[in-house]
């Protein structure tokens, strides 16, 4: 190989690495996937994630980027060792990022690369991402306009209080439907209040779970004091909690309808409810003939692990403060209910709101 060819190969490989960073920053996953050979591999043990082939790299990258609030990657040139139609090398990167569930940080990492000359030019045969330094201290900055894009212009971007985008709401609704739930996307609590009235027939026995979403929207007032339904909660409050414990249990366990909210809903189509006493969980789990869950957009999270973090790190502190102010006692997550699917078609309806409401 002459010196000119070696220089040309180095320039092209360096351009390939720059193209990778640009595609990642621009969230152009098809272009990023095209930079790999058809059987190319992207390995990220510290994530952890591994994608083999262009389609996996594209789809896997889209799943990861859907979790970003913002992401910035800077690449610094490293070594390139040529060996005919193959080469190896390293590139050094600095990244700052924050995800929509609040994880954030700054890191320095290395890409360990194998390259291959193809008819399309030099391509990655393999990229292995190794983190060398990670700082998860809170980032002071934010993506300009991120909160406005999320829908309110008020919630801090990247927190559990930030409403999900329209795209994430649609993805969540589709996953819920695939899991057997009915799912609707509504603009706000006004629309939810009207829709609940349409879903529940007059005279039905209805139990409202303890929920800030229902209280703030006025839905619990409509049901419990409106006179249209046989409301369970006023009957429960009239029973002595010591001598009438069995009666309370029976009343709350199997109403015609339960109306409640959730602590989190995942983009994979699961609902997570948390409770201190567990008294409202049986009806939600299946005791009620029908269930309606009203869910603010800020409760959408990528997966179950993030949902559990949202319960402990976001919902519990807010509910604890409310419980101490109202009842003089702390709150706790003593019971968790996870609904992965609805086996009885037509039983469960999730009303996803485009606005944030509740914890």
| Contiguous helical run count | 12
The total strand number stands at 17
The portion of residues forming beta strands comes to 25-35%
Termini distance?
65 Å
Overall average residue pLDDT? 89
Question: How would you describe the shape?
Answer: elongated
* Integer-rounded radius of gyration: 26 Å
Overall SS class: alpha/beta
Order of helices and strands: HHEEHEEEEEHHEHEHHEHHEEEHEEHEE
Task: Give a verbal description of the structure.
With 359 residues, this protein is an alpha/beta fold. It contains 12 helices and 17 strands. The protein has helices at residues 3-25, 29-34, 54-65, 146-150, 166-178, 189-199, 212-217, 219-225, 232-237, 245-253, 281-287, 304-326, and strands spanning 36-44, 49-52, 68-76, 80-83, 86-99, 104-118, 121-135, 182-186, 205-208, 230-231, 257-260, 264-266, 271-275, 290-295, 300-301, 335-339, 348-353. The strands form 3 sheets. Strands 1, 2, 3, 4, 5, 6 and 7 form a 7-stranded mixed beta sheet that branches. A 6-stranded parallel beta sheet has the order 8-17-14-11-9-10, with helices on both faces. A hairpin with a 4-residue loop joins strand 1 (36-44) and strand 2. The longest helix has 23 residues, at 3-25. It is elongated. The chain starts with a helix and ends in a 6-residue tail after the last strand.
């Amino acid at each position: 190989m002459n010196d000119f060819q070696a220089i040309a190969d180095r320039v092209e490989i360096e351009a390939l690495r720059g193209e990778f960073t640009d595609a990642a920053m621009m969230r152009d996953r098809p272009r990023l996937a095209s930079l790999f050979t058809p059987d190319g591999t992207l390995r990220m043990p510290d994530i952890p994630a591994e994608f083999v082939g262009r389609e996996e790299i594209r789809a896997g990258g889209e799943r990861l980027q859907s979790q970003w609030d913002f992401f910035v990657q800077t690449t610094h040139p490293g070594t390139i060792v040529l060996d005919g139609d193959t080469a190896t090398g390293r590139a050094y990167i600095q990244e700052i990022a924050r995800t929509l569930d609040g994880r954030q940080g700054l890191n320095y990492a290395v890409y360990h690369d194998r390259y291959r000359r193809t008819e399309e030019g030099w391509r990655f045969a393999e990229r292995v991402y190794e983190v060398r330094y990670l700082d998860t201290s809170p980032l002071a900055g934010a993506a300009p306009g991120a909160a406005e894009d999320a829908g309110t212009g008020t919630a801090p971007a990247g927190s559990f209080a930030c409403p999900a985008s329209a795209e994430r709401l649609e993805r969540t609704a589709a996953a819920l439907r695939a899991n057997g739930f009915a799912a609707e996307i509504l603009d706000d609590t006004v629309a939810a209040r009207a829709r609940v009235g349409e879903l529940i027939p007059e005279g039905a026995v209805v139990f409202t779970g303890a929920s800030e979403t229902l209280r703030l929207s006025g839905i619990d007032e409509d049901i419990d004091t409106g006179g249209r339904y046989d409301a369970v909660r006023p009957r429960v409050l009239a029973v002595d909690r010591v001598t009438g414990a069995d009666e309370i249990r029976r009343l709350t366990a199997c109403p015609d309808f339960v109306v409640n909210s959730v602590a989190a809903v995942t983009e994979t189509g699961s609902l997570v409810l948390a409770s201190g006493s567990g008294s409202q969980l049986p009806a939600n789990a299946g005791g009620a003939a029908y269930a309606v869950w009203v869910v603010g957009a800020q409760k959408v999270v990528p997966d179950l692990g993030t949902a559990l973090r949202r319960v402990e790190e976001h919902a519990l502190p807010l509910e604890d403060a409310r419980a101490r102010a109202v009842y003089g006692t702390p709150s706790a997550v003593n019971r968790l209910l996870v609904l992965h699917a609805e086996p009885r078609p037509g039983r469960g309806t999730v009303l996803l709101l485009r606005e944030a409401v509740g914890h």
